[in-house]
Design brief:
single chain, alpha+beta, Aminopeptidase, 5 helices, 7 strands, about 30% helix, about 25% strand, binds coenzyme A
Length: about 170
């Protein structure tokens, strides 16, 4: 007798394992430690859009080291689960700038991105900014949907100086 027959589900579609809602209120934000920087570089180089561009761990670490003062790292049960960067100035005059937001792959589509974004919005408000701007690759579907859902609208289409590719410039009020 198989396990399915024992639990009485033979011949029916197996019930997926129950996913417990995660209490993201337990996520703690801080500036990154040296050890965190390596975890963040791993997260960034292993995530699109950087992964598809072939960015190496060393390149991610170099980029994140420049951004270090602007990073808020989120930890869940003491482990890095994502990060967000907020700079006071960016491509839109007078608006704060969100350059990176990344959720650890296994935690995606569970509301953690929203929690990281709320942290970013709060940092931008503390900078006395009224608007938060960002640039996103229009081919990055999950990110574009995520930003739209969070109330960002496209204010311009710009050409990236680095890649020559099109980017959406999006913003929202704080
Ligand atoms: C973009 C990103 C931060 C979103 O984080 P997340 O934790 O998955 O987002 P959430 O679970 O909070 O989702 C909030 C909303 O975003 C949208 N969304 C998120 N992921 C999506 C996906 N893969 N496809 C379509 N919509 C998506 C949905 O509207 C979702 O709302 P819903 O759950 O009510 O449907 C995450 O996908 C990520 O880390 N991507 C890689 C890095 C990246 O591209 N960053 C942005 C450029 S810097």
């Amino acid at each position: 007798m198989t396990e399915k027959q024992l639990d009485g589900t033979a011949g029916t579609t197996p019930t997926p394992p129950m996913v417990m809602p995660t209490d993201w209120k337990q996520v703690k934000f801080a500036t990154p430690t040296d050890e965190d920087m390596n975890a963040l570089a791993q997260l960034r180089s292993g995530s699109d859009p950087w992964k598809v561009r072939g960015e190496t761990h060393a390149e991610s670490l170099e980029a994140l080291t420049k951004l270090r003062p602007f990073i808020a790292v989120g930890k869940f049960n003491g482990t890095v689960c994502g990060y967000v960067t907020i700079e006071r100035d960016g491509p839109v005059p007078g608006a704060a700038y969100l350059r990176n937001i990344v959720v650890k792959p296994e935690f995606r589509q569970k509301g953690l991105g929203h929690v990281l974004l709320e942290q970013g919005l709060s940092v931008a408000r503390d900078m006395n900014r009224k608007t938060l701007a960002l640039r996103v690759d229009p081919a990055n579907g999950p990110a574009v949907s995520f930003y739209r859902k969070a109330g960002f609208t496209t204010v311009a289409t710009v050409v990236s100086k680095k890649s020559g590719k099109l980017r959406l410039l999006m913003s929202r009020e704080l």
